[in-house]
Amino acid sequence: MTMPMTPAALAILQQHLMTALNTAPQETRRLFHGRGRCWPGLEQVTVDWLQGVLLVALFKPVSDDELQALQALLLALSQTTAWQQSGAHSLLLQQRYLPESPTQWLLGEPMEHWDIHEHGLHYRLDLGRKQNTGLFLDMRYGRQWVQAQSAGKRVLNLFAYTCGFSVAALAGGAQQVVNLDMAKAALSRGRDNHRLNQHELSQVVFLGHDLFKSWGKVAKYGPYDLIIIDPPSFQRGSFVLSKDYPKVLRRLPDLLSDNGLVLACSNEPEIGPGYLIQAMGQEAPSLQFSERLSNPPEFPDSQPDSALKALVFRQG
């Protein structure tokens, strides 16, 4: 249940942001994660630091008065010494609960794209045009894990989106990465991301297909030493987690090399890590659960099983 965004709640948000901007991160980071339900009245608010751009998102409706109070807080923040010293120049407010997720530029010149870096790697973000920027910040440790695991490996990146895992894998020395996603525009941005990192595109395959109609194409490039599964929780017409995840898991033993690794992810709050472990045991019993990756500390959650799940399994 979302509490009202009271003046007291907004004061807490203001203090968090002032503290964060006083020591602004060198890389892209979430500055405030209300969705973890640790601060009553701020459950619908997130704030991301995109290296000079502050992106504030509202995930549930608020009253007109609450919205105006939030805007006033943010504009006042932009007048502080902390803001100026942080190097911030743009301020965006996105209403994710509305159709098309409209974004208002409270400060700064509107721009379609903005390049950022994370863990030494570069990514191009969309600002103000789409629901998501193109990089999910809570998967920061997942990308680092993939980079550390990829040397010399053949990697399959399912539901690749803008190919963040692919960039990390190639940076880690992967022999080849195969990216599959139905959204060809997202894969095109994935190419941009690889180019930003001066990667050799001959080592990267982009398959703009429906996975469930394309197992033959996927298998052609295998077997794989590392498979990443990071599907949307629910995407109308393409993926329903509870129904479709098992269909993916049962294909894994035939796609994996001996001792191959799988990173299976879920961001569905209603489904805990036990679901993936149980489903893997049923659909692909040759794969053994190894570990759950930690989530970054900037994503606190009062119910950890509702937060991002990134689980490692090993074949054999």
Summarize the structure.
The protein is α/β, with parallel strands linked by helices and 316 residues long. It has helices at residues 7-22, 64-77, 81-86, 140-149, 164-171, 184-196, 215-220, 241-249, 252-255, 273-283, and strands at residues 29-33, 45-49, 53-58, 90-95, 103-107, 113-118, 121-126, 154-158, 176-180, 204-207, 224-229, 234-235, 239-240, 256-266, 287-292, 309-315. It folds into 2 domains: 7-110, RNA methyltransferase domain (HRMD) like (Transcription Regulator spoIIAA), CATH 3.30.750.80; 137-315, Vaccinia Virus protein VP39 (Rossmann fold), CATH 3.40.50.
Q: What characteristics describe this protein?
A:
S-adenosyl-L-methionine, 316 residues, transferase, methyltransferase, Transcription Regulator spoIIAA, SAM-dependent_MTases_sf, 7-stranded mixed β-sheet
